[in-house]
Specification:
By secondary structure, this protein is α+β, with helices and mostly antiparallel strands. Among the domains are: about 1-35, no CATH class; about 50-95; about 295-384, Jelly Rolls. The chain contains six helices and 28 strands. Strands 20-22-24-27-28 form a five-stranded mixed β-sheet, with no helix packed on it. Strands 3-4-5-6 form a four-stranded mixed β-sheet, with no helix packed on it. A four-stranded mixed β-sheet has the order 21-23-25-26, with no helix packed on it. The longest helix is centred in the first third of the chain and has 17 residues, at about 1-20. The radius of gyration is 41 Å and the shape is rod-shaped.
Length: about 375
């Protein structure tokens, strides 16, 4: 009996020494694997566990370890049925095709309306965005005070009083010497008899019937006067041409600076990948498509600002995605995901990533990261 037991132990020891691999359904497991399961009509049944949440650390009786794989049977707002693996103190879900399709559901713009001084945009999901028109339409005003003066209010709120009467008095000789004004006065005097007088603002005369008629110099001057130069406050400058035009007046150029964090001015859409655009009718248009732009890559690729979701498919070799300069993309978000079931090749991510010196990599199907730039470096805000 002891001889048989000793012989069996020696034989078992020989098997353990000669075969470091374990095979189920095969006598010759592949040397590159620790465990190989072979079957033509069966599968591997992963333990079905009712997890309570994505941070459940008590249901597994001996404690959670990194890469522990289970099939969750619980269906709640926090966690849905499916395969989960334990990583970084939480259960990470293995994403399926339906999950990817849910990510690719884009909204569409449905209507633009103006209500109570605001531009209202409504999308296909019922969401609304309200933009006060005062933020995009900066108004200047010129008001007649009905006392010979006008009040001009510029874009930055500066008030300027334009005194027409004083200008007429100070420039009266130049006004009456104007050929157009002079011809009008001569024509009136020629066609009417009687005395003509001037009281500082208007001419009066007595016609053939004895009635007193008034010539309003203000109206004549306003219709025929020429302004030499007028300079507005920052950011608007109005300047006249160096020489008169064909009619004897001057052409004017209005230069309006672009608005910035300090000064008011013209507002324009971004040069690259704008989220808010202006159409040919001057209307604002929110471009939701640019915020969810999907790019599929199967070779090395330099990520650009117009990208949003990058799906890597390394079919026959490792691929590397290079993030752009974070200092030029503050607030920009990129999602990088390995988008196939192949585990033979890696999706690598390089760039100025917080806490990462040699880049990131994954061969796990449908895993990846989400990055956001804080203006100095790319930060990982999500791993899946």
């Amino acid at each position: 009996m002891n001889k048989r037991l000793l012989t069996g132990l020696l034989f078992l020891g020989g098997v353990l020494v000669s075969h470091a691999q374990v095979g189920i359904g095969t006598l010759q497991p592949n040397e590159s694997s620790q465990l190989e399961v072979v079957a033509s009509n069966k599968g591997i049944l992963i333990p079905r566990v009712p997890l309570t949440s994505i941070t459940d650390a008590t249901t597994i009786t001996k404690g959670n370890v990194e890469s522990l794989l289970v099939f969750n049977t619980t269906n709640s707002a926090d966690i849905k049925p499916g395969y989960y693996y334990w990583y970084d103190n939480r259960w990470a879900r293995l994403v399926n095709q339906n999950d990817i399709q849910d990510l690719d559901t884009n909204t569409k713009n449905e209507s633009f309306t103006v209500n109570n001084g605001s531009l209202i945009l409504k999308d296909s999901d019922g969401n609304t965005v309200s933009i006060p028109l005062t933020d995009v339409n900066i108004i200047t005003t010129l008001v007649n005070n009905n006392n010979g003066t006008y009040t001009y209010t510029s874009e930055d709120g500066t008030v300027t009083i334009i005194n027409v009467v004083t200008d007429v008095i100070n420039n009266f000789q130049q006004i009456v010497d104007n050929s157009t004004v002079n011809n009008i006065l001569k024509q009136i005097i020629k066609n009417n008899a009687g005395n003509v007088s001037y009281d500082g603002t208007s001419f009066t005369y007595i016609d053939n019937s004895g009635a007193t008629q008034t010539i309003n110099v203000k109206n004549i001057v306003q219709a025929n006067q020429k302004v030499d130069t007028f300079v507005g406050n920052n950011p608007i400058t109005v300047t006249s041409a160096a020489t008169p035009n064909a009619t004897g007046g001057k052409d004017y150029t209005i230069a309006v600076a672009t608005a910035n964090g300090t000064n008011l001015g013209v507002v324009k859409q971004a040069a690259n990948n704008p989220s808010v655009t202006i159409n040919q009718s001057g209307e604002l248009f929110v471009n939701f498509d640019s915020q969810n732009n999907i790019k599929e890559v199967s070779t090395n690729y330099n990520v650009v600002a117009s990208d949003a979701i990058l799906l890597g498919t390394p079919t026959n070799q490792d691929i590397t995605l290079v993030l752009p300069d974070p200092t030029l993309n503050k607030g920009k978000k990129f999602t990088v995901k390995k988008y196939d079931a192949n585990e033979d090749y890696y999706v690598n991510v390089s760039g100025a990533i917080h806490g990462v010196t040699s880049g990131l990599y994954t061969a796990l199907p449908y895993s990846g990261w989400a990055f956001v730039s804080d203006g100095t470096i790319w930060k990982i805000i999500e791993k899946f």
